[in-house]
Specification:
The complex is a heterodimer of chains A (231) and B (147). Chain A is rod-shaped and about 150 Å long. Chain A is 49% helix and 11% strand. In chain A, strands 1-3-4 form a 3-stranded antiparallel sheet, with no helix packed on it. Chain A is mainly alpha-helical and 231 residues long. By secondary structure, chain B is mainly β. In chain B, 13% of the residues lie in helices and 52% in strands. Classes of the chains: A mainly alpha (231), B mainly beta (147). At the A-B interface, helix 7, strand 2, strand 3 and strand 4 of A face helix 1, strand 6, strand 7 and strand 8 of B.
């Protein structure tokens, strides 16, 4: 056999495996087919390769059909975790890497990205629900802002124009705001709708000291013309 | 589509109910009143032991130095309930609980021909004076709380 022919056969022999797998181009496959058709040694090699593949193929297929992959990943994780010093947490990024690369490697998803993911999880595929939720939130905020707070004082609205809470005679009727706390107990008081038929009513309150209580003086030993004070 | 609209409406109602329901008014449905009848007279300065917490205010009752307690009654009143107490001068004091307003306890005060509404600060005290009795003056101290 000439050297040129041996080199050609060796080249074809290297391609037989790929030819059997159908991985060659049309030109290469045609050349290999032509060689195998005329070369007894090549035919033997092909037959040997086919027999070897069949010998491996059947047990692998049989094993794959009966194998179970349940819990494989869990066992892998357990095995990694059991190794001394092993960790499933992200691998530390080497400091030699450029800053931009390091940031990209270590940065977690942003809050907005996580919210968007959660939103998609909850309302994904149901835009009507998402729109309803958003509208409800807007309406809820608006209602909460506009509705009067039930726990708040209604005193301001109830306070009549003739309410009296001053260190002045009741008949003055001029409403005055209570003053702030100045230590001690808070004895601020508001008097309103004072009605009497006899005598004099004086409401005594020290304006600059809310710890001083209100005193309602009623001297009923003298008649009065007007019997109604306040509202 | 109809089911989706219904589901959307349900979500909206639930969200509204949770977030925008008016907060309930704090129902201080009972008031506790400490009513003391005080006899203020001239003489050697004296303050009854049960009136010591009020002694700092007695300077407001000028001309009287002695303060004795003629009676005391603790009332626990439900809304619109009336508490009554007989006075030494034959009159009857009536106090009606009218609820709370912010940090104030609302009361209706009725004695003789005097009637008035009063809002006293939570835990605060107010006085009524002026009625003459046994050579001195009758003073009513009312301490009110709804908590």
């Amino acid at each position: 056999m000439k050297q040129e022919q041996r080199d050609h056969r060796n080249h074809v022999s290297e391609l037989l495996g790929a030819w059997l797998d159908g991985e060659l181009s049309e030109a290469e496959a045609a050349a290999v087919e032509a060689e195998v058709a005329t070369c007894a040694a090549c035919q033997e090699e092909v037959e040997g390769l086919v027999a070897l593949r069949e010998a491996f193929r059947e047990p692998v297929i049989a094993a794959a059909q009966t194998a179970s992959f349940d819990g494989v990943w869990e066992r892998i994780e357990a095995g990694i975790a059991a190794r001394p010093g092993a960790s499933l947490s992200p691998v530390p990024v080497p400091e030699v890497l450029p800053d931009a690369v390091r940031r990209a490697a270590v940065e977690q998803p942003s809050l907005w990205e996580r919210l968007r993911a959660a939103w998609s999880t909850v309302f994904g595929g149901q835009p009507v629900m998402a729109a309803a939720f958003a509208a409800a939130v807007v309406v809820a905020v608006a209602v909460a802002l506009l509705l009067p707070d039930g726990s708040k004082d209604k005193a301001a609205g109830e306070r009549g124009p003739a309410e009296i809470s001053a260190a002045s005679p009741a008949k003055s009727g001029r409403p005055q705001e209570p003053v702030g706390v100045a230590g001690g107990g808070d004895n601020r008081a508001w008097i309103s709708a004072v009605e009497y038929t006899r005598g004099t009513v004086i409401i005594d309150q020290i304006q600059d000291d809310p710890s001083e209580p209100t005193i309602v003086w009623h001297y009923d030993d003298e008649p009065v013309d007007s019997g109604v004070q306040g509202g | 589509m109809g089911a989706r609209v219904v589901a959307a409406a349900v979500v909206a109602v639930i969200v509204l109910a949770i977030t925008a329901a008016p907060r309930p008014v704090q129902a201080d449905d009972r008031a506790r009143l400490d009513v003391r009848i005080i006899h203020a007279t001239k003489g050697e300065p004296y303050v009854h032991p049960s009136l010591q917490d009020l002694a700092q205010h007695f300077k407001r009752f000028g001309g009287y130095e002695r303060f004795t307690m003629l009676g005391r009654q603790n009332m626990e009143l439900a809304m619109e309930q009336t508490g009554s107490m007989a006075m030494p001068n034959g009159k009857t004091l009536q106090l009606i609980y009218r609820g709370t307003s912010k940090e104030y306890v609302k009361l209706r005060f009725v004695m003789g021909d005097l009637q008035m509404n009063i809002r006293v600060h939570e835990g605060g005290v107010f006085f009524h004076g002026g009625a003459q009795h046994a050579g001195g003056a009758l003073i009513i101290a009312v301490k009110a709380s709804s908590r």
